[in-house]
């Protein structure tokens, strides 16, 4: 049987992007300036301090007043490795394109998620307003040991079925939700801001969110790429309470 690997992290890589603040400005100004290609808009840039202030003001206005369509004329594709239970939460967001590896067509690798020691374990409060607190040393040890034991046992059973000639699509049904999968996900800035508003917990947001930590780990890595690609848009998103326009 292949050697089993346990991880406590997620992978998010920016594979391809066509995403610039100028994309937002180009789309927004077509109503007043008429035809202009996206390439011309990017080449023009904002060379003076007055231009930069004007651009920042326009993006902030669009965000504040929720004129959302100009934020859709861009694209970001991410490669994500995470446990399957995280992907099920991802795909609740029907504002992106997903392609995930298939356990019907390939043998799944023995890579399993086990919570890191700093991962909070206790859930207190009521639905929609939970707080999560650290677990005891005994609880941490229990979670780690049981997760490892179940993963090893399930993957061994999976291998036995494959070796007996059972179809991959049948053998996979016994694998636990903490096995890693991989996917490509493509979305525009408006969709990404919607995702970030729901899957990150931040002080000062207009609509507080209480995401599961593992999908928040993915969201934080995606957010870092977004901040670098579209700094004016990202700044306006934060200044206006992290509400998608």
Kindly report how far apart the N and C termini lie. 50 Å
Overall helicity = 40-55%
Structure annotation, total helices: 9
Query: What would you say the CATH architecture is?
Result: 2-Layer Sandwich
Number of strands: 8
Enzyme class: transferase
GO molecular function, one term: thymidylate synthase (FAD) activity
Function: Catalyzes the reductive methylation of 2'-deoxyuridine-5'-monophosphate (dUMP) to 2'-deoxythymidine-5'-monophosphate (dTMP) while utilizing 5,10-methylenetetrahydrofolate (mTHF) as the methyl donor, and NADPH and FADH(2) as the reductant.
Cofactor: FAD
What does this structure look like?
This protein is α+β, with helices and mostly antiparallel strands and 245 residues long. The protein has a single domain, classed as Gyrase A, domain 2. Helices cover 45% and strands 18% of the residues. The chain contains nine helices and eight strands. The chain has helices at 21-33, 38-44, 49-64, 84-90, 137-163, 168-171, 189-199, 213-229, 231-239, and strands at 5-7, 11-18, 75-83, 97-100, 111-113, 122-126, 129-133, 180-187. The longest helix has 27 residues, at 137-163. It is elongated and about 70 Å long.
Primary descriptors:
Gyrase A, domain 2, 45% helix, 4-stranded antiparallel β-sheet, alpha+beta, 8 strands
Describe the secondary-structure layout:
Blueprint (H helix, E strand, L loop, with lengths): L4 E3 L3 E8 L2 H13 L4 H7 L4 H16 L10 E9 H7 L6 E4 L10 E3 L8 E5 L2 E5 L3 H27 L4 H4 L8 E8 L1 H11 L13 H17 L1 H9 L6
Parallel strand pairs: 1-5
Antiparallel strand pairs: 2-3, 3-8, 4-8, 6-7
Helix pairs in contact: 1-3, 3-9, 7-8, 8-9
């Amino acid at each position: 049987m292949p050697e089993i690997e346990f991880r406590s992290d997620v992978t998010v890589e920016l594979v391809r992007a066509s995403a610039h603040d100028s994309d937002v400005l180009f789309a927004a100004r077509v109503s007043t300036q008429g035809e202009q290609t996206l390439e011309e808009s990017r080449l023009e840039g904002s060379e003076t301090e007055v231009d930069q202030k004007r651009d920042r003001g326009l993006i902030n206005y669009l965000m504040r007043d929720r004129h959302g369509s100009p934020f859709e004329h861009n694209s970001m594709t991410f490669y994500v490795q995470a446990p399957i239970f995280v992907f099920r939460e991802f795909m609740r967001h029907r504002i992106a394109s997903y392609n995930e590896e298939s356990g019907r067509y390939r043998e799944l690798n023995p890579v399993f998620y086990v919570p890191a020691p700093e991962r909070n374990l206790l859930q207190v409060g009521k639905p929609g307003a939970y707080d999560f607190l650290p677990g005891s040393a005994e609880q941490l040890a229990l979670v780690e040991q049981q997760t490892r034991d179940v993963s090893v046992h399930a993957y061994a059973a999976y291998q036995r079925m494959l070796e007996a000639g059972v179809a991959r699509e049948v053998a996979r049904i016994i694998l636990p939700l903490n096995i890693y999968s991989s996917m490509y996900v493509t979305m525009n800035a408006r969709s990404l801001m919607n995702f970030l508003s729901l899957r990150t917990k931040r002080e000062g947001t207009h609509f507080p969110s209480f995401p599961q930590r593992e999908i928040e780990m993915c969201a934080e890595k995606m957010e870092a790429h977004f901040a670098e690609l579209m700094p004016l848009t990202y700044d306006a998103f934060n200044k206006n309470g992290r509400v998608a326009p």
